[in-house]
DNA sequence: GGCGCGCATGTCATCGGTGTCATGGCGTCT
DNA sequence: AGACGCCATGACACCGATGACATGCGCGCC
């Protein structure tokens, strides 16, 4: 914990000279340098990074706040942010917010008490109005989920379009009774996906049956129960759209007992190794994180920058096996459903959708 | 970007009074307070967190450096560290080091240039001697992998014991030719697991066949090739021990074409949903991270603390299906192997091994 | 009326490193 | 020889907030 001045005193020089030695300034006599170096070693001097940083006017630090850093989706988001940050010599402070709105606020505020230059946040709480105080001071970009009670830059996946595509895909396989299972209708992401699902049903002239929609935050939320309840409805579904990866992971074990076709929103490691391999709507979390971080960096560079933007990233349907359980296998259709699928080719262009942005929609 | 003095000038008071208002010091006349508050708002004053922190002598910040934050294993480690940190009002800076030794060093050094109070690191490079400079200044705890070229606190899983147990388990199922696949023999973790594997073979009086050991960092490392090469050996293996989760994930698709039994080192999400469900040696990454973070916090509290410790956490065998492919299914044994398995009950005590520590071994 | 106390506010120093400029010695060029 | 310039080094200010202590006013009490 020795300071530069202490070292200076010991070496019989001024603090400035010590500074020069520490920073390899060539304008120091070899003999002086030796003396200082020795004092440095004797006192085990290590420069105080904080003082340096402070003097330098602050180093860039990017905050990443996600519900759970151990969730593969958010881990990929965080990693992408980190990659961008590293390329700009910026460090990254992460904070797991959890899924409890009150904890979220507390965690965010203690994160924001630190010296941050920008923030990428994926909130779950119903209101982020309290962040207004900070959006003035630093770039705050919302990722995966839009802010509520606040205007801010946003990078999200195409929830509505993705769910619509997924459901249309199942309809293309002949399914007429398609369940929807998600975490909570409060989460805007889930709400959008449900809307997309319903839009696809409507476009196909199918009725949206409320009893085929289930949420894991409801009273009777054990995954097994949810599946049982869906199976008991009449007619029972022949397919299910799982609205997010956490839900999917909870659901997969229960689905083994059914012959339902499945499309899941959100890819995850090993989804292709399940039996059957899961057909998923992939959101490209890395692109989400990368764009969010780049947006922050951009705003850092151009202080009173441009208007706020909401970017929606295309999603892509990764067709594997789980959507193939044909509707007639459940005895409802005497024929194999024709392949009506226009959605895949429509939304997944050859170049790989993930690398392109949708045109921005300015607010 | 307004400073306190600017606000003070505007409000016609001293900076100190502004400070008092900002910090809710009661000794300020209501009228003054109002004037200051107004100036505060007009200038959009936000306290400079860095200056505050600096003046306060620094806030605790814990660094976490892992090869890849998006790897489920390290994500869990990081999350556990974060939880501990949050409980101590400490923020967490993460850095993904990558798997390239040179990049690792660069990333570590740029992480350490920041004001950190402690570090939890899982290195992959063959030498961390360059960290010696920092271990003097702050607690550095190695997690999952021990340091090389340096002495430091270490929290690791019981690699040797776990691999020995896994191989013994396979032997118990009647297997006599057991392959070992890992990332690289350079990684101490992998080396220890290979040693454990060999120890189990030796204990059972089996020969360790070098051609049944394969690494992904070798020349011909595509997982498909590795599996083919193993299958071509004679006699071919009837079981395989995968030495780490990344290897396992790469291997699983290739293993589908074989009837080999599998035990994998390292659990991961959905491992239980594969077909067959993977039998794994679970390392409890959360406990690893938690203990490492607690060790750092502890050392932070007791500056010139106790001797350096190496803690080895027990691992536990999670028996699922993939170890059940009996040896005779490959036509090598005319009888169903007797269940010799003592290893499971020996190493997985009722209370759950993960919650206990092995006695520390002082260095 | 004088003494003292409480309260609002200000001044100054400080955290630790570093940028800016000053100083003084010595070598060199004309 | 005088002027100039380079070099090693130092003194001092400063980044921005805040703790310690000082000042000065007003009020109450003996």
TrEMBL record, chains A, B:
Where along the sequence do coiled-coil regions lie? none
**Entry-linked InterPro entries:** HTH_LacI (IPR000843), LacI/GalR-like_sensor (IPR046335), Lambda_DNA-bd_dom_sf (IPR010982), Peripla_BP_I (IPR028082)
Q: Any keyword Mitochondrion?
A: no
Q: Its Gene Ontology molecular function terms?
A: DNA-binding transcription factor activity; transcription cis-regulatory region binding
Under Gene3D superfamilies, the record lists: 3.40.50.2300, lambda repressor-like DNA-binding domains (1.10.260.40)
Q: Which domain of life does this protein belong to?
A: Bacteria
Q: Which keywords does this Swiss-Prot/TrEMBL entry list?
A: DNA-binding, Transcription, Transcription regulation
- Matching SMART domains, A to Z? HTH_LACI (SM00354)
Chain spans, region Disordered: 343-363
Q: Which CDD domains match?
A: HTH_LacI, PBP1_LacI_sugar_binding-like
Q: Which Pfam families match?
A: LacI, Peripla_BP_3
- Give yes or no: UniProt keyword Magnesium: no
The segment(s) forming the HTH lacI-type domain are: 2-56
Protein name, per record: Transcriptional regulator, LacI family
Organism the protein comes from:
Geodermatophilus poikilotrophus
